[in-house]
Amino acid sequence: MILQYSHSIYLPLQPKKKKKKSQMTSRNFPFSLCLSSLLLTIHFFFVTKTLAQVPANETFKIINEGEFGEYITEYDAGYRVIRNEVYDFFAFPFRLCFYNTTPGSFVLGMRAGIPRDEDLMRWVWDANRNRPVKENATLTFGKDGNLVLADVDGSVAWQTNTANKGVTGIQMLPNGNLVLYDKKGKFIWQSFDYPVDTLLAGMSVKQNNKLVSRTSDVDGRDGKYSLVLENSGFNLYINNSGQLVNYNGWSGSGGSFIRFYTAPIDQDPKSAGWELLLETFHDKKSSPSPKPSPSRRSLLQSFPVGSGNALILRKLNYNASISFLRLESDGNVKVFTYFDGVPYLKWSETFAFFSSYYVRECGLPSKCGSFGLCQRGMCVGCPSPSGLLGWTENCQPPKLKPCVERAKVDYYKIDSAEHFLNRESTGNGQGPIKIEACKEKCSKDCRCKGFVYKEDTKKCLLVPVLGTFIRNVNTSTAYIKYNSL
């Protein structure tokens, strides 16, 4: 006799021998219980394995080896295209690659742009920016549905953590979203949920999450600038020796998510006019639903305009569907747009937060490096106790002695100057207060590197980081803390 039990698993049963009633009572129950437990265990094991597996012919293991691509990419990075017989990981113009900016240190990243563009190809997403891998590292997609980047020594540098979660396939979508999906097409994991320093059109940041800049073009690790969605807005911060300093941003967003996206002005994909937008919303599943712009606004509008829950960053006179917003390593926020309708130079900078058409360029903390005086977008001086010197990239703030209680410090002035923190969201400081009291506050505060004093309003702004000062014709004066000989 044969018993059939789910998924064609057959177990033979031996013919029963006649037993005395007392024997059957004492032995049959334990046997049935054990058999049931065994069958349930086998059933659970096979069903679980069936649900979790990726087809064997769609798994892969790709090794980081071979020749580099010959075309120029952003950050002057070398790259190796990731592909095999089954997967190409390409959806125009996005491609998955290993890339490096220093020898032997590779990041799994996404490139936007193709070699025939005769233009710089851009890097728009990183998987392992803070833990690069070496030559012969492996990218593996196994039957369990987990995508794993392992270094040459076998240590895991990055993974999607999707093992045994029902993943059946992987795909690069036309919008640059790398997805792992189940048998119903539901996304189990997607790169759009893990922005680093960049938002492709359609990507979002949720409240209390952030974009983090690169350290530099050469160093792709987390830098000192961040763009954070908070109750008060989409705020820009600089990390000053462990202290976060809010230096600008978009105030009053009031949403649980903020999404960067693009849309034709009249909702016609063939429209010549497109908008770059930031939309705030509470439900991540909600779709952008931009309204046609009022006809009174010119096509090439310069200044951002609010429209309902969307902020229009800029309007363009060509298709802007392939665009990305990025927090740059210098702390600026820029948008780049790809237009395939021209023979070369297909990437254009289409928006910059600190620029002539939005917030003044001198308001960028790093505009004049670690220290300097800026006027009309140019660095015009290096402040010193002896007065203004010519600005160079070597201009440095004063090096202060270790801060101790009642240690004597001096100050030198920068006339007609304000700080990048002198802005609407920060204000001009506390007051009214006398300048002597303002100076005393800074002298007692080890974090204070100087202060800005407004003679007209008697306001005092203590500054924890120097950076760029801005030439101003009003009654604002900056005072820089230093140790005299």
Automatic annotation (TrEMBL):
Residues 72-193 form the Bulb-type lectin domain. Transmembrane segments: none annotated. The keyword Glycoprotein applies. It holds the Pfam family B_lectin. Residues 403-484 form the Apple domain. Keywords: Glycoprotein, Signal. The keyword Flavoprotein does not apply. This is Uncharacterized protein. It comes from Cinchona calisaya.
